[in-house]
Design brief:
- It contains no helices and nine strands.
- By secondary structure, it is an all-beta fold.
- The chain has a single domain, classed as 3-layer Sandwich (Rieske Iron-sulfur Protein), CATH 2.102.10.10.
- A three-stranded antiparallel sheet has the order 1-9-8, with no helix packed on it.
- Strand 2 and strand 3 form a beta hairpin.
Length: 108
């Protein structure tokens, strides 16, 4: 499937995340502190918790429930209790719009 428009880039403030569901997959679309847009799986691998409700710090997204931080570029957890990565999806910003391809999982 091709990339799908999820929002206008202007809708994403720096250091915030928003949840979208594409083809049944919950995805957190995040603008990090440097202004780069990322898309990672929205479900914490430690528990069934929405990561988009967590905290963005620099290039990480922290689960609000148990404190696991995930690297936005790789999906890898940086601390316990999570030890499995979340998927990372291809993001394109074009004409002020953010597009995510739910079938294009990046494997670092």
């Amino acid at each position: 499937m091709a990339a799908q428009r999820v929002c206008a880039e202007a809708e994403l403030a720096v250091s915030t995340a928003m949840k979208v569901v594409l083809d049944g997959k919950p995805i957190a679309v995040v603008k990090d502190s440097a202004g780069q847009v990322h898309a990672i799986g929205d479900t914490c691998t430690h528990g069934d918790i929405s990561l988009s409700e967590g905290f963005v710090e620099d290039s990480t997204l922290e689960c609000w429930a148990h404190g696991s931080k995930f690297e936005l570029a790789t999906g890898k957890p940086l601390n316990f209790p999570a030890y499995e990565p979340v998927p990372v999806y291809t993001v394109t910003v074009d004409g002020g719009d953010v597009f995510v391809d739910p079938d294009a999982v990046i494997t670092p």
